[in-house]
Amino acid sequence: MNRRGDAATDEGTPTEPVGPSPTGAAGPSRPTSRDVAERAGVSQATVSLVLRDRWRGRVSPPRAEAVREAARELGYRPNLAARRLRSGGTGTILLVVPALTNEFFARVHAGAAAVAAERGMSVVLFPSPEGIGPAPDPFASAGATLDGVIASSMASRALRALRGGGLPLVMLDSDPEGTEAAATVNPDVPEGLRWAGRHLLAAGHRRIVHLAADVDTWTFRERGRALAAELAAAGHPLVGSARAALDVRAAAVVAEALLAARPRPTAVVCDDDVLAAGACKAARRTGLRVPEDLSVTGVDDLALATAVEPELTTVRLPAEEMGGAGMRALLEVLDGDAPGNRVLPVRLVPRGSTGPAPTGPG
Amino acid sequence: MNRRGDAATDEGTPTEPVGPSPTGAAGPSRPTSRDVAERAGVSQATVSLVLRDRWRGRVSPPRAEAVREAARELGYRPNLAARRLRSGGTGTILLVVPALTNEFFARVHAGAAAVAAERGMSVVLFPSPEGIGPAPDPFASAGATLDGVIASSMASRALRALRGGGLPLVMLDSDPEGTEAAATVNPDVPEGLRWAGRHLLAAGHRRIVHLAADVDTWTFRERGRALAAELAAAGHPLVGSARAALDVRAAAVVAEALLAARPRPTAVVCDDDVLAAGACKAARRTGLRVPEDLSVTGVDDLALATAVEPELTTVRLPAEEMGGAGMRALLEVLDGDAPGNRVLPVRLVPRGSTGPAPTGPG
DNA sequence: CTGAAAGCGCTTACAG
DNA sequence: CTGAAAGCGCTTACAG
From CA B52, how far away is CA B54, in angstroms rounded? Predict the structure, then answer.
């Protein structure tokens, strides 16, 4: 007979120094589906059916309700290990991102993990992003067997390594066309960059440059394309552009060169907040004031956007929502549905790093 | 910093799944311990003993080697669900932190998750940090059954909710005395703050103030205490201090007040990089140059430390190592060992936000 | 509509 | 030193 009780009952149990249960399964054992079945006066099979919501047309409503009540009274929670063993699933999803230390991907992960937790699944991060190209088996090195994969912002080259795993794949922030993904979830980055361009145009800026990320992925290509198109359509095309690695210091070096052009640009649109922070750094070194002499915009709305002075005007990407939506899509695929492609809205967050275009010659 | 998505070529890598699929449910079924046993000519029990490294004195060395070889040849990896079901463990560890969005805790989590993965365990984050005080059962709301708990930088009040769970507990960045933790892992924060103080004293600063975190936890109390003691011992005690919430904007407001004192302080030691960024903001608004007029130091070495201009001199805390060491300690507890208390070294990273004390009257 | 039974892959007493 | 056997808690055909 299984008991359930609070920790206080532990005091009565003998605790050897080298414990009887080295696995840490302390305390009285939890109620099982057998206990629920007994209490509800049904079989274990009925309990399983009802609790997994597969009972319609197979169990009578009153019995289903009785099962639910018994489960509630007992505080029953299914043993995930048993369920997985029986069902063949592993309960773990691999999240592949290009850089683990990046705050954006940390937020994507948080969003995905939260949704996974609701379903008793867990998320493992791909542990060595550097090795994703030549690694013969990225999945084995993940240290777990997998039910599916979510990949974010990957280069198409790196994506090849993800195929052939035969696992359901959901792509985030990636080309919705031509992938073998079962579903995609994308922030509307083109619209975001258009917002940034319009924001600067409205402030009177006419000499705008683009500090692009030196990363060959769909998301950054789209950013550059959308910005250039928007400005050109307004009759004030980009007057310059350059690429920098996603690193504040590297970006500062490249931005300094961009700012050396004459007439000097009055605004720089950056693909990413990290690049924008680099641009601000460059401005400061060059003796330019932000925003009086130079306006700067970023993308992401990371913590550093409000940490720098002035704070960054930026395009907020819904990182957590992307992770959550991606996980939800993957769960749908696992359930046999075809979720398709989703686009999430983004918004411009105006802050201190942008202002009216300086008047007079540059 | 890692470059996003920039992976080496993977040409030559076979795209077709070869042999037994390492990925689990899809494709041909994975080899089981039974397959290994068959191939090695032993029983399943022997395989289990050998592969879990519990074979000494129970299995002859040649047979043990044969088992290992068979497992290698087959690409055998144990089914975690089966192992957990049998052993009673759940394979999941709860990590409780005060703020999920904080980069420091994200790094602690990464370190813990990496070590956990090596052992086939997974880490769940406490999902609602706000609720940790009054929550009647934080464990149930974690959405999973647990083998143990790691808690970082928690207020003692919040800690009470963690007791009574009856689960093995490892504390990070917390008071090593008087807790019911089985083990603690702490960065040497007092030494870190002493370093900051010495660094400024050596640069000639005599009017130093402390911008403290308005958070009532052991780690921040220790920081203030160590700094005050170090400066007092040198004959140049703190000339002021104030507390601010861990938020750049809030810190800037408080720092402005600190900097209004006359004679003006020449250096501000901050409990955290976020506070230091706020202090830099305040300096800029006040018209003070960093570091010419004011030196600023932080603690953590977050990404923002190098994103701001000038970059922050800071005390680097080994966040990943703490998470990893904490997980290792917890695994030892689970194995029946008593790991005790560990202190991890910290180091001062001098950057542009500190310089020689300004000469002349403040 | 419902229950009895088999079995997922592993670990652990237990008997040799 | 080694193997046969039981069983962890669940889900799923299958037989009523």
Answer: 6
